[in-house]
Specification:
The chain has 19 helices and 18 strands. It has 483 residues and is an alpha/beta fold. The protein folds into two domains: 265 residues, 3-Layer(aba) Sandwich (Rossmann fold), CATH 3.40.50.2000; 187 residues, Rossmann fold (3-Layer(aba) Sandwich). It has a nine-stranded mixed beta sheet with strand order 3-4-5-2-1-6-7-11-12, with helices on both faces. Strands 15-14-13-16-17-18 form a six-stranded parallel beta sheet, sandwiched between helices. Strands 8-10-9 form a three-stranded antiparallel beta sheet. Strand 14, helix 12 and strand 15 form a beta-alpha-beta unit. Helix 1 packs across helix 19 and helix 9 packs across helix 13. The protein binds adenosine-5'-diphosphate (ADP) and alpha-D-glucopyranose (GLC). The site of adenosine-5'-diphosphate (ADP) has 18 residues, from helix 1, strand 13, strand 14 and helix 13.
Length: 483
Amino acid sequence: MKILFVTPEIAPWVKTGGLGDVAAALPAALMRAGCDVRVLVPRYPALAAAFPDAQPLIRLPAFGGQLPASELFLAQAAGTPAFLLLDCPALFDRPGNPYLGPEGRDWLDNHLRFGLLSRVAARLAGNASPLDWRPDILHCNDWQTGLAPYYLRFYEPGGAASVMTIHNLAFQGVFAPQLLDDLALTGKDWHIDGVEYYGQMSFLKAGLRHADWITTVSPTYAREIQTEDGGMGLAGLLQSRAAQLSGILNGIDTEVWNPATDIHLPAHFDRAHLTGKAQCKRALQRELGLAERDDCPLFGVVSRLTHQKGLDLVAAIGDALVALPAQLAVLGGGDKTLEKAFAALAERHPGQVAVCIGFSEPLAHRIEAGADCFLMPSRFEPCGLNQMYSLAYGTPPLVRATGGLADTVTDCTAETLAAGSANGFVCGPATPEALIETLRRANAFWHDKPSWRALQKNGMARDFGWARPAERYLDLYRRLRPQ
Ligand code: ADP
Ligand code: GLC
């Protein structure tokens, strides 16, 4: 089985969220399951630097309109699938965030940048591919690759079957209709079954309409996106494709996220030996300037600071959290108002609240390990990886029952505890009142040490590795593979 996996980000080199993690781990798991996988990703500066010896493979011509000529480089790290690095310096040789300029606004040519990525993916998956390697499956991820199934169907027919995975329906790649030409598209493409979307053009819509199969990253989210509330304008289209839509829960990379071996931790632990976790808590308190106390729980947050994640609710109840008493460690960035609200909270409660604005992989690991309980009260969550990292790190997550959170976290009650399924706390509506009520419940429970241990161990027992999800993708690919 040959898979061309196309992605706009890949950990550890270029990552803004969970998609980067998935794009690194899923292709590797598919490779272990016996697939021949190549990962197509733009040659951003971080990837050019990571693979200085990448081999130039082929040159690709300009595609009509403004989609410029580009070149493919082949790179490979130990134990990873081959990477096809799409080189086009005018579009990708820019430092920092892959989508945003230094002012924090989308790059004005994002349609070209990801239009080119999609166009090249389709070319490599189609019958006219310049490579002698022909994939059976083109696996696309999120709006940045949404035009690929469309180009494949109408401009490169007869090649691979396409799968479009939704990691987050909130981002739809919507652009002005005037940009059609730039993408080597014409008036023929401008209709309700093409790229048109409420008078605009949407990359994701075109992909969802024309991919051979649609997946999303949890079974619950697969149902939610077919409802008016969760469909974000695409519910009708997704309902019409219900027979080709399924949810496959993400895994986590258990090499990178393993508390027994994690290179970022000052001490290690596992399900049978939890003492290292107490050392991680103490070290984290020291690192972040928190009071080194062990008489109250430390709540952790690692997140993009956006409306989706419900962290405005955490900021709103911050004072009440401190009064429990409890401590709070936050790592994140994004929404400026939220960043300020958290900074103000930390100023009001020195020693009890620590806030780090920014992106730090090592600190993310240390918070997962050092916190007692992880806060993730998302309004919606396609899958969520952090609650699974938390479960693996003996840090019961406190979440809302939505998307992948509902599929992974079981609320702690007398019954679920007796049944051995309790592994965290689930809060009701997305309100500060519901959140503080659930925090109080978690806090009280933390003081009951034997029960808390049971909760930790339940979470740590579950296998969240990628082997099982990779098998499910492989089953799907087998069904779709052109005969
Ligand atoms: P999403 O993709 O919606 O942001 P996920 O839970 O799927 O949510 O994945 C988020 C990933 O990004 C996790 O690996 C998390 O550790 C990481 N992450 C988010 N914000 C930060 C940050 N500020 N610093 C380090 N890692 C972060
Ligand atoms: C998205 C979602 C997140 C999911 C991740 C990886 O960014 O917001 O819930 O875990 O993609 O699929």
